[in-house]
Specification:
This protein has about 350 residues and is an alpha/beta fold. The protein folds into 2 domains: about 170 residues, Aspartate/ornithine carbamoyltransferase (Rossmann fold, 3-Layer(aba) Sandwich); about 160 residues, Rossmann fold. Helices cover about 35% and strands about 15% of the residues. It is built from 12 helices and 12 strands. The chain has a 5-stranded parallel beta sheet with strand order 3-7-6-4-5, sandwiched between helices. About 40% of the residues are buried. The structure holds N-carbamoyl-L-aspartate. N-carbamoyl-L-aspartate (NCD) binds next to α5 and α9.
């Protein structure tokens, strides 16, 4: 398998590339949301629930910290991050791992002209796990593939690369939906609206991929025309028989949905160009709450700006702060899975 070159690897369909990053049902690297299938998702949800409940007692926390105290993680986060960085650091610490980080490339030898690739190779010498977020689309998959042939074959997790993918955000979003709908027949057959900058919002893109693991999901993709969901995702939805409609009027659909996933406009990718996009039809305000079903959950990966009025925060349907917490538990579960201590947790 590893006899293919990087160029050949990158020519493959993503579903074929995913096969390089799994061995004996265990992820060697997490790069794409497409690497999760339903059995793996459900195992991770069960594991995250177990980590969460063990963490309620001192004995449980000490047990979790005894699992990976001999492992070190590198957090290479050269793009802004609050929740993802901190929740990954907390997830590592929950399992007893120690962490180091590079957050500002100006403090690394990249300023002396070292390539990112060499920097990553060095991290892989000192550490047992690399968790990374950086702006270059496609870099994470290249490194993850190359890492397979570097000594030690250290695992790598994509914590958001370019505008393309953010698989662990989608994982925590799905875990949140799974918990929300736990007592309401589960996530199958639910109608979910994704709102905002669907073109450049990597969280919405990755979540759309993950939702195709569920039966009978109907998606409403609500975005200004200029920021509509890209064709690759729509193609994936079609191939997986996930029905979707596109609209630029989110408010017209509020009464019919079971969950709404708000996202912000990703204008850091505009690179100074002035846009004349009409954002007036985006945004959830307190006055819209009565239109929603009594159990329509409101999600947002955060950070938010004005897409969700703060007056909504106290509504029981608002679960965006729960999402942030869930991220820590599910990331601990993912790391436990990658380091094969999942059984220890479930059997404790
Ligand atoms: C997202 C990201 O960085 O892609 N944030 C996050 O990870 N929680 C969403 C965003 O920045 O809008």
């Amino acid at each position: 398998m590893s006899t293919v070159s990087l160029d050949q690897f990158l020519q493959l369909r993503i579903s074929r590339r995913c096969q390089y990053f799994i061995e004996n049902n265990r992820l060697l690297a997490l790069v794409y949301a497409q690497q999760f299938d339903r059995p793996l998702l459900e195992n991770l949800f069960r594991l995250a629930d177990a980590v969460r409940s063990l963490s309620e007692t001192s004995d449980g926390r000490l047990f979790l910290r005894s699992l990976l105290p001999d492992r070190r993680a590198m957090l290479y986060f050269t793009q802004p991050s609050t929740r993802t960085f901190l929740s990954f650091a907390a997830a590592c610490h929950i399992l007893g791992m120690s962490t180091a980080d590079v957050r500002d490339p100006a403090t690394s030898s990249e300023v002396k002209g070292e390539t990112r690739q060499d920097a990553l190779r060095i991290f892989s010498i000192y550490h047992d796990l690399i968790i990374m977020r950086q702006p270059e689309a496609g870099f994470c998959e290249k490194i993850a593939f190359q890492m397979l042939s570097w000594p030690g074959r250290k695992p790598i997790i994509n914590a958001g690369s370019g505008t393309d993918q953010h698989p662990t955000q989608a994982l925590l979003d799905l875990y949140t939906l799974h918990r929300c709908f736990g007592r309401a027949g589960g996530l199958d057959h639910k109608k979910i609206m994704l709102v905002g900058d669907l073109k450049r919002g990597r969280t919405a893109r990755s979540l759309a991929y993950l939702l195709t693991n569920y039966q009978g999901i109907e998606l409403i993709l609500a975005a200004p025309d200029e920021l509509a969901m890209a064709e690759d995702i729509k193609q994936h939805l079609r191939e997986n028989s996930t029905t979707f409609i596109e609209t630029n009027d989110m408010h017209a659909h509020l009464a019919e949905i079971d969950a709404i996933y708000m996202t912000r406009i990703q204008d850091e990718w505009d690179q100074g160009s002035k846009t004349s996009i009409d954002y007036s039809r985006l945004g959830l305000q307190a006055k819209h709450l009565t239109a929603l079903k009594p159990h329509c959950y409101i999600l947002h990966p955060l950070p938010r700006r004005r897409e969700i009025q703060t007056a909504i925060d106290s509504d029981p349907r608002a679960v965006y702060f729960d999402q942030a917490e869930n991220g820590m538990w599910i990331r601990a579960a993912l790391i436990a899975h990658m380091f094969a201590v999942d059984k220890d947790i479930l059997e404790h």
